[in-house]
């Protein structure tokens, strides 16, 4: 059971103060009865709640896929930079979602956002072995020797030994290389630091896949949408 005003506020129908006035005005019904008390207890998943003639459909969790743009930080709040939450419509912000893991400020691509803490934990915890796939442009020629080093486990500048990673060379020359990298961890600047460990620099990085869920290529950078039931089932299968 939850307070009626909390349920309606979470769905973007107003602040608790505003909803108190709305209820007193006789605009809210619960199971066919006028709800004069905005603080009354309701079962949002089973009670029929109508506000101003419109029946509401409550959901506790929200699941979003974003194509994160360059220059935006993966945080819920930042006093200097624009955050991924700032890109959301108010109707989605009211659920107070947070990024699943993070992408660096200058990294683009697939970012998941949710307010489902349990799912978030499963997706970012290394013990569940969820693949994160990245496309990267590298400033130098990537070699088969680098592939072997990634598979064996790269040691970062702070001494941390990364788990086995898959490095696939798409094309390589002395002018630079295009590669795909698959990791199951999410250390700070991990992909960039892994390449630094082999004497190379990442000049562009885009996450293309999380688990087996690919980025919707129809999403422009900065755009997002809710996950489909099928996509959510994929993520919950881990």
TrEMBL record:
<dbReference type="GO" id="GO:0120159">
    <property type="term" value="F:rRNA pseudouridine synthase activity"/>
</dbReference>
<protein>
    <recommendedName>
        <fullName>Pseudouridine synthase</fullName>
        <ecNumber>5.4.99.-</ecNumber>
    </recommendedName>
</protein>
<dbReference type="InterPro" id="IPR042092">
    <property type="entry name" value="PsdUridine_s_RsuA/RluB/E/F_cat"/>
</dbReference>
<dbReference type="InterPro" id="IPR020103">
    <property type="entry name" value="PsdUridine_synth_cat_dom_sf"/>
</dbReference>
<dbReference type="InterPro" id="IPR002942">
    <property type="entry name" value="S4_RNA-bd"/>
</dbReference>
<dbReference type="GO" id="GO:0005829">
    <property type="term" value="C:cytosol"/>
</dbReference>
<dbReference type="Pfam" id="PF00849">
    <property type="entry name" value="PseudoU_synth_2"/>
</dbReference>
<dbReference type="GO" id="GO:0003723">
    <property type="term" value="F:RNA binding"/>
</dbReference>
<keyword id="KW-0413">Isomerase</keyword>
<dbReference type="InterPro" id="IPR018496">
    <property type="entry name" value="PsdUridine_synth_RsuA/RluB_CS"/>
</dbReference>
<dbReference type="InterPro" id="IPR006145">
    <property type="entry name" value="PsdUridine_synth_RsuA/RluA"/>
</dbReference>
<dbReference type="InterPro" id="IPR000748">
    <property type="entry name" value="PsdUridine_synth_RsuA/RluB/E/F"/>
</dbReference>
<feature type="domain" description="RNA-binding S4">
    <location>
        <begin position="2"/>
        <end position="62"/>
    </location>
</feature>
<dbReference type="GO" id="GO:0000455">
    <property type="term" value="P:enzyme-directed rRNA pseudouridine synthesis"/>
</dbReference>
<dbReference type="InterPro" id="IPR020094">
    <property type="entry name" value="TruA/RsuA/RluB/E/F_N"/>
</dbReference>
<keyword id="KW-0694">RNA-binding</keyword>
<comment type="similarity">
    <text>Belongs to the pseudouridine synthase RsuA family.</text>
</comment>
<dbReference type="InterPro" id="IPR050343">
    <property type="entry name" value="RsuA_PseudoU_synthase"/>
</dbReference>
<dbReference type="InterPro" id="IPR036986">
    <property type="entry name" value="S4_RNA-bd_sf"/>
</dbReference>
<dbReference type="Pfam" id="PF01479">
    <property type="entry name" value="S4"/>
</dbReference>
